[in-house]
Amino acid sequence: MIDLVYLSGGKAGLLGLLVGALLGGAARMGDFCTLAALETAMLGRDYRQLHIWGIALGVAILATALADAAGLIAIGHSIYHAIAWNPLASIGGGLLFGYGMAMAGNCGFGALLRAGSGDIRSVIIVAALGISSYFTLSGPLGPLRDLVFPQQPAAGPGGIANDLAGWTGLPPLGFALAIGAVLIVAGLRHPRVAGSAVTIACAAVVGLSVTLGFVGTALLSEGGLAANTIEGPSFTVPVGRTILYLMTATGMLPSFSVGVVFGTFAGAAMVSVWRHSFRWEACDDPRELGRQLFGAVLMGIGGVIAMGCTIGQGLTGFATLAWSGPVTLAAIAAGAMGGLLQLVRGDLI
């Protein structure tokens, strides 16, 4: 008799591989990068990549809200709503992650994209992030994290749309559609974005990959023995899971999150080869490598505390309109901007 858990795991891994390939390939093709968006806006007054981010986020919110309304998913089954929101964890973890992102020169997702383009430094950053995430999740820092940032089940439905609906009496779906539409329209206001069909399409695919993950994992959850849950792309703890899988998972099939990590790397690599932009790169400055490793460790710790990264909270969590999404994303942006200013001033030790 076929083991249903084993079969479900195989399907979940393939689903993750597909979602990751779409996400990684579209991000690489469409210049979707969180740190680059913040850096070009802050230092160069170029807001093009922020507008791309807005389109991707708007599409993710719209598609996720519609999937929830159609009964394809249940947003309340995601970790962003099933676990009670801890504002201190979102702010503290986000600031730590953002500062580490500036020091490392990329977030975990961005490092995977660069690794797929031949950047060996990014492979080291990804490894350090993954190890530090598990060090914080279930390793020596786990008890301290539980003590300072405890996670409790949510008391009931919450989130931005539900709270606004409760305050006004209007339907939550209307608020979700309005927020998503505003973000898309705002993103399209940049002339260089609006004038590029490829950029718009890539941003849309980035957003849709989140909803595809939600819908796919919901269907697998209903048809298997797994708990009834939905999952989208994230790149903190899943990177640690991928490292564990590579070291210990003999005879086991990858989970959804591990498949996403593999798929993102593969998608970025395929686009880089197709665009003839694949180049082997290494770090010849030990001080720079040390700073990047330090930043990767901070990202791993901060991402676990905040329960997500630029993608895990900033895109996936925000797509469900959980309060943790925008608050964590804002904290990440603030931490990154502080780190970038420090790098520009050159006052790092």
From TrEMBL:
Task: Give the membrane topology, semicolon-separated if more than one.
Answer: Multi-pass membrane protein
Keyword Transmembrane helix in the entry? The reply is yes
Domain of life of the native organism:
Bacteria
* Pfam families documented for this protein: Sulf_transp
An example Gene Ontology CC term for this record: plasma membrane
Per the record's keyword annotation, is NADP included, yes or no? no
Query: Where does this protein reside within or beyond the cell?
Result: Cell inner membrane
Q: Which UniProt keywords apply?
A: Cell inner membrane, Cell membrane, Membrane, Transmembrane, Transmembrane helix, Transport
Task: Provide the transmembrane region boundaries.
Answer: 12-38, 50-76, 88-111, 123-144, 164-186, 193-215, 243-273, 293-315, 321-344
The cross-references to PANTHER family, in alphabetical order and at most eight, read:
INNER MEMBRANE PROTEIN YEDE, SULPHUR TRANSPORT DOMAIN-CONTAINING PROTEIN
In the record, the note on similarity to other proteins reads: Belongs to the TsuA/YedE (TC 9.B.102) family.
Q: Name it.
A: YeeE/YedE family protein
